[in-house]
Structures are given as structure tokens and as C-alpha cells.
UniProtKB/TrEMBL annotation:
GO terms for molecular function: ATP binding. The lineage of its organism: Bacteria, Pseudomonadati, Pseudomonadota, Alphaproteobacteria, Rhodobacterales. This is Iron-sulfur cluster carrier protein. Homodimer. InterPro entries: FSCA_dom_sf, MIP18-like, Mrp/NBP35_ATP-bd, NUBPL-like, P-loop_NTPase, YlxH/NBP35. Keywords: ATP-binding, Hydrolase, Iron, Iron-sulfur, Metal-binding, Nucleotide-binding. ATP binds at G114, K115, G116, G117, V118, G119, K120, S121. It comes from the Bacteria. It comes from Rhodobacter flavimaris. Residues 5-73 form the MIP18 family-like domain. Belongs to the Mrp/NBP35 ATP-binding proteins family. Binds and transfers iron-sulfur (Fe-S) clusters to target apoproteins. Can hydrolyze ATP.
Length: 354
């Protein structure tokens, strides 16, 4: 067998870890690279003491392979991401047969956008709050694994408990059940994962979180990362989604990307529940003059062109940002923005989407 990732993994499967299993079956091997005779990988996901004890044996096992010139095994110091109290978040995905329902949840709705920064997370949190205010039992999953913003927007920062070391108990804020990968990692810690690890983490967020811990949910809102990448693809293919909401600003560039997101949902067979125009109208708080900084009406026009429902427009409002930054979504209060969210929530309920 010539030197390859597979031959290295095969050798690693033959190494017994001090506390049982082997490094591959225990999912401890990350970022394995084989270039010519040079083998490099990161070992993480067990205690530092166990990894330090196993490292020389692991290196020797790889070095004994034909064609190996050098072996570099990196054991990061400090606890691995997702380690510490409770379950480890971030693993390779486990095989599953077809799209799975989320236990304890009646409807699952993804909120996506083509372009970043158009307000998808703001819309997700406020819509979750507005639906909860309308009497629905709502969950909010922050699937924006590279840039989780729901802990800040919903004002939660406690690490979720895990009584059995596997099940994760979500938190509650503003009447909404909340879970974010950001709650499992240190705030300033970057997530440096390749696609499979991201997909495994998402699978954990959907399968290991006890979404019905406070009672069964009417709807789980999933705040997606921007774009049309691995996470969106995995979610649509592996989870029984009831539909997707696409958020865009009226600006041409944002709309162009929103069309890509819509095309992705269409091709993956995820029904689009509707489109939302965010940052639509700016009303000057001093003189009441209405301005359209990013244009106006582009999203409803696109919805009409595609024959998709238009759910409504949301104003560009300083209060929205301040409330989001303060962890108290604007939909928890009164005023134009809160009313706009209540209107969209009503439409979703009337359409039977929730
Ligand atoms: N209608 C609005 N009025 C004023 N500010 C807004 C509005 N919507 C969003 N914002 C602000 O714009 C910024 C980006 O919003 P948000 O993080 O929700 O966007 P996103 O599309 O989720 O971004 P990302 O691409 O990072 O996931 C935030 O500071 C937010 O408070």
C-alpha cells in the first residue's frame, strides 16, 4: 500500500489509546495531510495527559510506514474546542439514512441570505421573539458556525448544561429556546474546521440538543451562515426542513446573491416560504423624512417575478442595531420595527408555516 491518508489512518487504527479505543475511532485526528513522504496532523479531543502519553506511540506507528520521511503530530495546549465541562462539539459527521426530523419540533424553518451582513441573524432572532409573543413555542438555532451572533443578540452567554455528558440542554431567552455553537466555545476563539467537522457540529446541534426540554416546540428557526456552502447543503439534505425564508436588502448586489440562495433552495427541493426585505426604509427620527438608502421594493418585485410569497419589509432603524447589540431584540418592545416583525409572524401563522 503506497503512502496515503488511508494508509496513515489504517496505521493509526492499530494504536491503542491509554483510555481505550484508537485515535481514529475516537475521532481525535484532525487536518491530516500527506505530501510526498511528509505526514502532518493535529491530535485533539482527549485530555492533554492522554494525548501526550499516546503521541510517541502514534508517531512511531506512522513512522514505521513505508515511504514516510517525517511525521509531525501537533497536540494543541489547553482544552480543545468544545472540551471542558459537557460534551465535545465538533466531530466528523455520523452516517444517517435520509433527512431526519428534529425531535420535539413540529416545523423547522431555515433563514438564509445570499450575502453576508444583510440582517439574517437580526431577522432570525426578532422573528423568533415575535412568534413567541404570538403564542408559539419557538426554538432558535444559530447555525452560523464561523460567526455565531445569537448569544449576543439574544443576550445569553451561559454554557448550556449537559447532565449526561451527551445531551445538551438549550437556554431560554425572551420566551425563546436558544442554542448556538457560540455558547460552547470561548468568545474570542476562532473555529478552524474543514467541511466535515462543520457538518458534524451541525448534526450535533440538531440531534444532541434537547429542543423539547421545556416542552415540545411549534417551530425551530435556524439562522444559517450567509451563502450557499457546506452548512446550507448539509442542512437541506440531512434535516427534514419545512421551508426556508430568504432575507435580502433591496440593493442590487444583495438581491443578486439572494437569487443564488433561492436557486440553491429550489435545487435542493426546500420550499421557499417567503422573502423579506430588510433595511428597507429609513425614517429620520428628527424630521420623519423617509429615505431609501439601499433602494426600495427590489425584494417584493423579485418575489413576484419568481411567484414566491413576499413576507414584508423591515425598516432600517438604529433601534434595531442597538437592541441587537444589547441582547434585547427590538421585537420584545413596541414601535415600528417590532410591529413589522409581528406582521411577518402573523403572516407565517396564517399561512400554516408555523
Ligand atoms: N433593519 C435594521 N436596521 C438597523 N440595523 C440593522 C438592521 N438589520 C440588521 N442590522 C444591523 O446590521 C448588522 C448586520 O446584521 P446581522 O448580523 O443580522 O446580519 P447577517 O446577515 O446575519 O450577517 P452575517 O453575514 O454576519 O451572518 C448588525 O449590526 C445589525 O444590528
Amino acid at each position: 500500500m503506497s503512502l496515503s491518508k488511508e494508509s496513515v489512518l489504517k496505521a493509526l487504527r492499530g494504536v491503542a489509546m491509554p483510555s481505550g479505543g484508537d485515535p481514529v475511532s475516537r475521532d481525535l485526528v484532525r487536518a491530516l495531510a500527506v505530501q510526498g513522504g511528509i505526514v502532518r496532523f493535529v491530535l485533539e479531543g482527549a485530555s492533554e495527559a492522554e494525548l501526550a502519553a499516546a503521541k510517541p506511540v502514534i508517531e512511531a506507528a506512522v513512522r514505521s510506514l513505508e515511504g514516510v520521511e517525517s511525521v509531525t503530530v501537533v497536540v494543541p495546549s489547553g482544552p480543545a474546542k468544545g472540551m471542558g465541562a459537557g460534551p465535545k462539539i465538533g466531530q466528523h459527521p455520523t452516517p444517517q439514512a435520509g433527512p431526519q426530523a428534529v425531535e420535539g419540533v413540529r416545523h423547522v424553518i431555515a433563514v438564509g441570505s445570499g450575502k453576508g451582513g444583510v440582517g439574517k441573524s437580526t431577522v432570525s432572532s426578532n422573528l423568533a421573539v415575535a412568534l413567541a409573543r404570538a403564542g408559539k413555542r419557538v426554538g432558535l438555532l444559530d447555525a452560523d458556525i464561523y460567526g455565531p451572533s445569537q448569544p449576543r443578540m439574544m443576550g445569553v452567554n451561559k454554557r448550556p448544561a449537559s447532565p449526561d455528558g451527551k445531551t445538551i440542554l438549550p437556554l431560554q431567552a425572551h420566551g425563546v429556546v436558544v442554542m448556538s455553537i457560540g455558547l460552547m466555545l470561548k468568545e474570542d476563539e476562532a473555529v478552524i474546521w474543514r467541511g466535515p467537522m462543520l457538518m458534524g457540529a451541525l448534526q450535533q446541534m440538531l440531534g444532541q440538543v434537547a429542543w423539547d426540554h421545556y416542552g415540545p416546540l411549534d417551530v425551530l428557526i435556524i439562522d444559517l451562515p450567509p451563502g450557499t456552502g457546506d452548512i446550507q447543503l448539509t442542512l437541506c439534505q440531512k434535516t427534514r426542513l419545512d421551508g426556508a425564508i430568504v432575507v435580502s436588502t433591496p440593493q442590487d448586489v444583495a438581491l443578486l446573491d439572494a437569487k443564488k440562495a433561492l436557486d440553491m433552495f429550489r435545487r435542493l427541493g426546500t420550499p421557499v416560504i417567503g422573502l423579506i426585505e430588510n433595511m428597507s426604509t429609513y425614517v429620520c427620527p428628527n424630521c420623519g423624512h423617509e429615505a431609501h438608502l439601499f433602494g426600495h421594493g427590489g425584494v417584493p418585485a423579485e418575489a413576484e417575478r419568481l411567484g414566491l410569497p413576499y413576507l414584508g419589509e423591515l425598516p432600517l432603524d438604529l433601534e434595531v442595531r442597538l437592541a441587537g447589540d444589547a441582547g434585547q431584540p427590538v421585537a420584545t418592545g413596541e414601535g415600528a420595527a417590532s410591529e413589522a416583525y409581528a406582521g411577518i409572524a402573523r403572516k407565517l401563522i396564517e399561512a400554516g408555516a408555523v
